Amino acid sequence: MADKLKLTIATLILLGAVGAFYYFGDQSVLLRVVILLVALGIATAVAARTAPGAEAIGFGRGALIEVRKVVWPSGKETTQTTLIVLAMVVLMGLILWLFDTFLVWAVKLMTGQGG
After folding, report:
1. Is the pTM higher than 0.90?
2. What is the pLDDT of residues 21-63, one digit of tens each?
3. Across 93-115, average pLDDT
4. In this structure, how many other beta carbons lie within 10 angstroms of the beta carbon of residue 43?
5. Are 62 and 78 members of one domain?
6. Which structural domain range is residue 41 located in?
């Protein structure tokens, strides 16, 4: 029950901040964005104190740990892979174009439109 109340409060903070952003449209955009970001930080802090918020933070930390484990390809590997993909796209395009040309010829021949 406490988690639902905290999430409701966080949602109301966000909705209030968005409403205030548009309500005070005649004020400085910088001021409105700063207030919106502060409200977002407060709402996030309130939501982080709930069980779903703690799970989301744990998931984010786990994702960052996994990203650090990734072995990124070198520039040379990236270039080679890109060239292979481009060559295959061109090759498949040619094969499909030839197949389409054959089918057009065959349909014209069967319908008597070919000369």
Report:
1. no
2. 999 889 899 999 999 999 999 999 999 999 998 999 999 999 9
3. 92
4. 20
5. no
6. 2-69
Q: Examine the domain organization and report whether 23 and 39 are in the same domain.
A: yes
Please tell me whether residues 10 and 40 are part of one structural domain.
Answer: yes
Q: Residue 90, Cα to own-chain centre: how many angstroms?
A: 28
Asked if 13 and 51 sit in the same domain, the reply is yes
Give, in degrees to the nearest 5, the angle at Cα 22 between 21 and 25: 95
Kindly tell me the burial class for residue 34, based on how many C-beta atoms sit within 10 Å of its own C-beta (0-12, 13-18, 19 or more): exposed
Q: Which helix (DSSP H) or strand (DSSP E) does residue 86 occupy? A: helix 75-111
Q: Other C-beta atoms within 10 Å of 56: how many?
A: 14
Mean residue pLDDT of the chain comes to: 93
The radius of gyration of the chain's CA atoms, rounded to the nearest angstrom, is 29
* Residues 79 and 105 both lie in one domain: yes
Q: Is there a contact between 43 and 7 (Cβ–Cβ < 8 Å)?
A: no
> 112 is written with which tokens?
């008597």
Which DSSP state fits 112? T
